[in-house]
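hey
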């Protein structure tokens, strides 16, 4: 069974067209060409579907980096490692 981090990185890799070894907490929306507003919506939707969670609009807007995404998802999963 894949870890939450592996599952999340798989989604990020697929949606943002980035290799898994290029994914870090510091990967930023404004600095990654493929991470535009549409990709952001798809990314959040894929994560919600995969993990069975729901992000509030405010949370979606506040996600600026992969690190933000991991922290927000970890809260949704009651602190499980992401």
């Amino acid at each position: 069974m894949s870890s939450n981090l592996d599952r999340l990185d798989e989604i990020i890799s697929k949606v943002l067209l980035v290799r898994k070894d290029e994914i870090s907490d510091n990967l930023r929306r404004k600095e990654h060409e493929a991470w535009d507003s549409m990709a952001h919506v798809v990314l959040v939707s894929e994560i919600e579907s995969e993990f069975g969670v729901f992000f509030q609009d405010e949370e979606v807007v506040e996600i600026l980096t992969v690190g933000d995404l991991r922290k927000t998802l970890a809260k949704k999963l009651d602190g499980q490692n992401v």
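Residues 4-80 form a domain with the Non-ribosomal Peptide Synthetase Peptidyl Carrier Protein; Chain A fold (CATH 1.10.1200.10). The helical segments are 4-16, 37-51, 57-62, 66-76.
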